[in-house]
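S1.2 Input.
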Amino acid sequence: MTEPVPPRQTPDQPWRSEGAPPPPPKRRMPGGWVGLALTALVVFLISDLLLSFFGPAGATTISYTEFNNQLNKGNITKIYAKGDAIEGTLKSAQPKPDGGKGDYTEFDTQRPSFAGDNLWATLQQQGVEVTATSPVQQRSFLTNLLLSLAPMLLLVFIWVLLARRMAGGLGGGPLGRKAPPKPVTAEEGTRTTFADVAGIDEVEAELTEVVDYLKHPERYRRLGAKMPRGVLLSGPPGTGKTLLARAVAGEANVPFFSASASEFIEMIVGVGASRVRELFAEARKVAPAIIFIDEIDTIGRQRGAGGGMGGHDEREQTLNQILTEMDGFSGSEGVIVIAATNRADVLDPALLRPGRFDRRITVSPPDREGRAAILRIHSRNVPLAGGTDLNQLAKVTPGMTGAELANVVNEAALLAVKRKQEAVNERDLSDALEKVQLGAVRPLVMPQEERERTAYHESGHALLGMLQPGADPVRKITIVPRGRALGVTLSTPENDRYSYTEPYLRGRIIGALGGMAAEQVVYGVITTGAESDLEQVTNIARGMAGRWGMSERVGRLTAVPSDPQGAYGLSAAPTTLDAVDEEARRIVSECYGDAVRILTEQRHRLDALAAALLEAETLDEEQAYRAAGVPREAPSGGAGGSHGAEGSGRPDEADGKSIDPA
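S1.3 Output.
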């Protein structure tokens, strides 16, 4: 397993990099602010100690009675008065009146306000030098002005300090000082290469040209060839787009700058464009290099398609800066931009024109051989028990991406640790696959009546899947509550399917309606457990009638948007949409009638399968076919249509799921 990209270190650097030369170290104060505070404390203590040793001795506080005694003796040479406070000096030292050690000559005392003595006459008689100041001092105009402005100045200082911090966090500005970018260098030996990528050989072959250009640019310059300035990787989540970009950089041994598109966007307009300029400037300094922008559809959506309040919002400014930077490349700069997205259909056309992201590569989920290779890569650091067959696991995981397969291997390792094993065996992998596909086991005690109803529901799904010609074989049936479902029936194809026929899609609908049909045949009523089944049936039937031309009435046209989040009512004329809905109802009605008819004719097999399921709670493929008395047919390589693949190879997650009535 490879190490992840090191995280960014400073807020004003919205990218991460590996393989780039480290910047010169910044001179910093040893110990930082803590060291500064400790140094100031030590200096203060030393200064105070020196002043206490070498500074003038402090005055001794005496009582006013003692002061009068010394005055009457003529032992005072001068005094300093401020109001009723008196400080003075003795002619000859006297022992301290409080019994302390040593004598004193400097003293201070306080004259009581009720004292009625004629102090001034006595001082004149004794020849004492008197100095006095007014108890109320008049401050100067400048002092008064500074004191009145001090609170305001303090508030301004605090505001400037906060503004500098915010400006520094947002990429700098007129109030903030922006620190230079600090690339994070990956440790030696952690660079990702094509050896860490599997299952997408056709994509790897496309990117090999980029690697060769970065390694030997002189070959291309000699013939006047220019490499694409941008490569767009599109595909479902988890298919390895980021891994591929890192592998290209690692294979070519060039610096790799990685950033998410959302990290460029801030509330302050202009920050995103500034960050884009800095990123491209840093890449040019260490060219040849690769810039990778993940989820570029965040800022690369079509302009003018809503979402902004005019033509100068922050998102559009950032996109315009990216377009400008890519357009400013010359063929000899050696900086290639790789971007990844799950929604290539919403990108702005200016991004996809020749000269920018002019090469588009689709990264699809791996096939069977690719899944086996991915499993071998992710299990390199996982000890496997003898006899563990990763090819069998790859066979029963159609449609899974590399990230999902990595999750299965990790879950299996966690189960092996929990079971205190020394290695991961096939049982761990099988249980991990069930946990990922079907959900975690939920401790739920159901009444016997609910268990029987759930058993018949799942048996209806499974039996119709067994009896339908060309249907995906049943892999596992369970009435153990998992996740949100009270029961699950798992069916996966023998081989990877890339297209689907109308009979296969009708078989999918019949199988999905099997749970509801079984409840109708056995109990004469239906429950809310078929909610997810009906959602799946609706999508397939509406796609057959409105997307894939499988309805004579609607014709060979597309009336339903392929985007599930698209506006259904805006995709075609109202009469066409009405025809699509009527045809979808007809298809579902015919399939439901077939499901009820088949289960009525095969009632004995339905009862036998439900009884075995109630006894064992979970049946694997062999046990299920044996309990139903259905012979296991040889695998067929049947084809069918990719557009009907929603949920293919996936568990029927909500089989038997109960919901609160509206």
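S1.4 Remarks. The chain has four domains: 60-133, 183-362, 375-438, 448-644.
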